[in-house]
């Protein structure tokens, strides 16, 4: 079973539950019906906004913490010239 | 394994280096590899899979084989440019080591990280260790790992990379932070297994290998690496690559 199928399965479960509660076929225990009716319609939007802000934050944070490594570049350059000198001495064509 | 070993590491490490027009880079990457392996007293070989590069990569590879020995630098050329994925399969047929290291020949992957890959593999008996540009510590933790990073990328390139990575992380939850990187250490049997079930070609190949590894229950560790974008020759990243990347993520989402 591919990941897509598992994700689709879980999503279908939640959508069914949501619809049943929405259509009042299913009652939410311990919470007043009025409150449920108020909260329920905004849940999808809330999830959407939540995901959007999570995405933005995680992208921004990733970008901010993406490290530059100039030291690795300079180290590499000096290793390259060392390697070239050594290889030239051994008869390998480097330019 | 048989033979005499100067250290208590009785494994042999085979590096598969696919090359296409890497005449300038190949001697230096081999020099760096040889130096690192000798300093760490490891048994090693490099399998060079050259796809009939027109720039004379094979001539310089022959010179290197005569300098380092034909058992150390093993040339297994192919007659045409047949792609990166099949180059690994081809190289794998000739590996005599029990661990395989896959890397690019263009210095974006530095051999100095290989000893850390090996230490992490040993400490946790891992099947795969992959390099990551996105982490600052290794996973599982290793004291001598230093933060990863890139050199030569502007903000736009970094944003695309982060975005692509975020997409894959969210959709595939692969358990590793760098899916597209191709600097990895594999147990040879594990690489053989994964590569036979991997279907995609080109760009998606490296990603699929990691996603398959997780699905097959292999253990994967990560070591942060510094990535110096290719100094010679050009690296491509355009709209086409972005689209084929997104398609690849979707394929893996629905297929694995
Ligand atoms: N044998 C072989 N090697 C290749 C081929 N394409 C790319 N390579 C090599 O694979 C490595 C990565 O190349 P590429 O993905 O083009 O570079 P990037 O864009 O900088 O990541 C380099 O060492 C190339 O020389 C190919 O078709 N055949």
TrEMBL record, chain A:
Transmembrane feature ranges: 7-31, 43-64
GO cellular component: dolichol-phosphate-mannose synthase complex; endoplasmic reticulum membrane
Biological process, per Gene Ontology: GPI anchor biosynthetic process
Pathway: Protein modification; protein glycosylation
Subcellular location: Endoplasmic reticulum membrane
Topology versus the membrane: Multi-pass membrane protein
Domain of life per record: Eukaryota
UniProt-listed Pfam families: DPM3
Keywords: Endoplasmic reticulum, Membrane, Transmembrane, Transmembrane helix
Family of the protein in this entry: Belongs to the DPM3 family.
Entries under PANTHER family matching the protein: DOLICHOL-PHOSPHATE MANNOSYLTRANSFERASE SUBUNIT 3
Quaternary state and interactors: Component of the dolichol-phosphate mannose (DPM) synthase complex.
Record function comment: Stabilizer subunit of the dolichol-phosphate mannose (DPM) synthase complex; tethers catalytic subunit to the ER.
Protein name from the UniProt record: Dolichol-phosphate mannosyltransferase subunit 3
Biological source species: Marasmius oreades
Upper taxonomic lineage: Eukaryota, Fungi, Dikarya, Basidiomycota, Agaricomycotina
From TrEMBL, chain B:
Organism of origin: Marasmius oreades (fairy-ring Marasmius)
Keywords: Endoplasmic reticulum, Glycosyltransferase, Magnesium, Manganese, Metal-binding, Transferase
Assembly, per entry: Component of the dolichol-phosphate mannose (DPM) synthase complex.
An example Gene Ontology CC term for this record: endoplasmic reticulum membrane
Pathway the protein acts in: Protein modification; protein glycosylation
Its job: Transfers mannose from GDP-mannose to dolichol monophosphate to form dolichol phosphate mannose (Dol-P-Man) which is the mannosyl donor in pathways leading to N-glycosylation, glycosyl phosphatidylinositol membrane anchoring, and O-mannosylation of proteins.
EC number: 2.4.1.83
Cofactor annotation: Mg(2+); Ca(2+); Mn(2+)
This protein's record includes keyword Metal-binding: yes
Primary enzyme class: transferase
GO molecular function: dolichyl-phosphate beta-D-mannosyltransferase activity; metal ion binding
Reactions catalysed, as given in the entry: a di-trans,poly-cis-dolichyl phosphate + GDP-alpha-D-mannose = a di-trans,poly-cis-dolichyl beta-D-mannosyl phosphate + GDP
InterPro entries per the UniProt record, alphabetical: DPM1-like (IPR039528), Glyco_trans_2-like (IPR001173), Nucleotide-diphossugar_trans (IPR029044)
GO biological process: alcohol metabolic process; dolichol-linked oligosaccharide biosynthetic process; GPI anchor biosynthetic process; isoprenoid metabolic process; protein O-linked glycosylation via mannose
UniProt-recorded name of the protein: Dolichol-phosphate mannosyltransferase subunit 1
This protein's record includes keyword Chloroplast: no
Location relative to the cell: Endoplasmic reticulum
Sequence similarity: Belongs to the glycosyltransferase 2 family.
